[in-house]
Design goal:
Radius of gyration: 20 Å
Family: Belongs to the zinc-containing alcohol dehydrogenase family.
Order of helices and strands: EEEHEEEEEEHHEHEHEEHEHEHEHE
InterPro entries: ADH-like_C, ADH-like_N, ADH_Zn_CS, ER, GroES-like_sf, NAD(P)-bd_dom_sf, Zn_alcohol_dh
Distance between the termini: 10 Å
Keywords: Metal-binding, Oxidoreductase, Zinc
Cofactor: Zn(2+)
Mean pLDDT: 97
Protein name: Alcohol dehydrogenase
Strand content: 25-35%
């Protein structure tokens, strides 16, 4: 079988390899689509993702496919089933797992990060992280359930109620997912700030965004109850805090560099009684995410701008492919 292997920092090669054999508790997945995201950019450049990736490793933690084999102890799956895979695997034994915070697991492992992922024709995953994909959800959309589940987890960390006004800062794929996720969870007004007019207008016209702001020229009002920061730069993190009114919640979702800092007026945090919340990966959010896609409350396919093959992945990770909203790799 063919697979794309990360062999070192900014080094990838396509190799032929034997098809893996699933262990007793594992499922063998014939990959159909694998998404490319910011974590893959980080790993390609030698930075950590949800965990450290040690080359040689096959990336690809956003996957959909067809069950090609099941281990002897697996129940509930059969060859031919359409599936998607939650890449994150928790130990179940550490302090955080035993206190209902598995996303903070001390021994976190992940498909496409610490073990081979979906940028190959076949990969294995523990059956506990494999989910059936409804017929109403395409395999292409199925490869976006992992990033959607990260947005859903972030939304679930907040105390939301319909009267609130929300602002999403960031018009990338994750920011656009947050727009729909907030709406699905009942927020009556969701605004979007970013830097690309076409994306901003698209979300206003197709997904009901109330107000759009181009941060290169527009001033953002300071009257939001909920602000999602989905960029990860100091200036946007500072802007997220500044956009709040009293009693607001700020979700810091965008991933900054490991040594990055931003400035914050601590008196304002005190005086406004702000809640500033981090959000890491996606625990217990796959079922909700699948339901949002199956019900049509979230529509991801209009946000997928590029369908690639394995040979094109490195160019994307080198930022040589312009105007990407979301890229998926078709594994054929």
């Amino acid at each position: 079988m063919e697979r794309l292997v990360l062999t070192g920092t900014k080094k990838m090669t396509i190799e032929d390899h034997e098809q893996p054999t699933p262990k007793a508790d594992e499922i063998l997945v014939n990959t159909k689509f694998a998404g490319i995201c910011g974590t893959d950019h980080a790993l390609y450049n030698g930075l950590p993702g949800s965990a450290n990736a040690v080359p040689p490793i096959v990336l690809g933690h956003e996957n959909s496919g067809i069950v090609a084999g099941v281990g002897s102890a697996v129940e509930g799956f059969k060859v031919g089933d359409r599936v998607t895979v939650d890449p994150n695997i928790y130990c179940g034994k550490c302090f955080y797992c035993r206190t209902a915070r598995p996303e903070l697991c001390d021994h976190l492992s992940a498909v496409g990060v610490t073990r081979d992922g979906g940028l190959e024709e076949y990969f294995t995953a523990p059956s506990e992280v494999v989910y059936h994909l409804p017929e109403t959800v395409s395999l292409k959309a199925g490869a976006t359930i992992e990033p959607l589940s990260c947005a859903v987890h972030g939304v679930q960390l907040l105390n939301l109620t319909p009267y609130q006004k929300a602002l999403v800062i960031g018009d990338g794929f994750m920011g656009q997912l947050f727009v729909q996720a907030l709406q699905a969870y009942g927020i009556h007004q969701v605004d979007l700030a970013g830097i690309i007019d076409t994306k901003l207008k698209f979300n206003q016209e197709h997904f009901g965004v109330t107000n759009i702001f181009n941060t290169t020229r527009d001033e953002i009002p300071s009257d939001y109850d909920v602000v999602i920061e989905a960029v990860g730069l100091p200036q946007t993190q500072e802007a997220a805090v500044e956009a709040t009114r009293k009693g607001a919640q700020v979700l810091m979702f965008g991933v900054g560099k490991p040594d990055q800092h931003f400035q914050m007026n601590t008196y304002e945090v005190y005086q406004k009684q702000l809640t500033i919340q981090g959000s890491f990966i996606n625990p217990n959010a796959f079922e909700d995410s699948i339901a949002l896609l199956a019900s049509g409350k979230v529509d991801v396919e209009p946000l997928i701008s590029h369908e690639l093959n394995l040979a094109q992945v490195a160019d994307v990770l080198e930022d040589k492919v312009p105007n990407i909203s979301k890229a998926v790799v078709k594994i054929d």
